[in-house]
Amino acid sequence: MDRFTAINVFVQVAERGSLTAAADALSMSRAMVSRYLAELEDWLGARVLHRTTRRISLTPAGEAALARCRSILELGEDLRAALVDPGDAPHGQIRITCSTSFGLSHMAAAVADYVARYPGTAVDMLLIDRAVNLVEQRIDLAIRISGELDPGLIARRLSLCRSLLCATPAYLRTHGLPQRPEDLAAHNCLTHHYVGRSLWRLHGEGRIATVAVSGNLSANEATALMQAVRADAGIAMLPTYLVAPRIVSGELAVVLPAYAPEPMGIYGVYASRRQMPLIVRSFLDFLAARFGETPQWDRDLA
């Protein structure tokens, strides 16, 4: 028996919850998955899975074995990564997901540059404004912008996402320029479904101001909010990666420049450290180098 493969099969079944899903992920038949599991149990001298017609669950022995099996696979991956020739070029396809606004404003160009640099690669992009299950959607890498990630996620920080309050000069001429955060209560504030829907928490001038905001437009996507702001509809909290060019050009003005929301991180999230393809590792390195802790769009505003 190939014990390393059997261990990998067991971990895949445990994580995916079914023999069929594990078989699909490993490109082997369901019968072969069952065979590897049976041989692993023979080797360990214990049953690791309860199998019924409806579900699979870990036995107490399986729970004890799972963490150790994961460690074995991670050690194997570390060894493989250490022996990779630095001159090896990434190849194959990677499936990624990110928000619509970040995908259109920056990731599409980054992907184009990456595949141009490595002709043997291809990228399948899924632009969606919610967190997806990486295993179920067969996502290799998710680019997520968050203040705090779930501690159970495996992620690499790639850059920083800062936001500013923005409006058009025309809106501010008509409705007045807020002088302090509390003045926002008298303005039409356009809000994001998932970030600051009813409260904006702003840092500045030695204090944290938490302001209740409201308006006649809310959306689940930052580009839609920016377009509404461009139409003189109100004030919105928008990421600098999206609005920096329009601020530099003067189309949009920064409201309360002494105050800003708490920055969030831009992360590359992946399902497992085990058997990370070279293309995934390479793409993470590429994005981290391209964006950096102070990305170009923030340098443009300096």
Summarize the structure.
This protein is an alpha/beta fold and 302 residues long.
**What is the CATH C-level name of the largest domain?**
Alpha Beta
Q: Enumerate the strands of the largest sheet in spatial order, edge to edge or round the barrel.
A: 4-3-5-15-6
The poorly predicted ranges are: none
Helix content: 40-55%
Class computed from helices, strands and strand pairing = alpha/beta
The shape is elongated
**Euclidean distance between termini CA atoms:** 61 Å
Question: In the CATH hierarchy, what is the superfamily of the largest domain?
Answer: Periplasmic binding protein-like II
- Characterize the largest beta sheet: strand count, sense, and whether it forms a barrel: 5 strands, mixed
Number of domains: 3
Radius of gyration from the alpha-carbon trace, in angstroms: 24 Å
Strand content: 15-25%
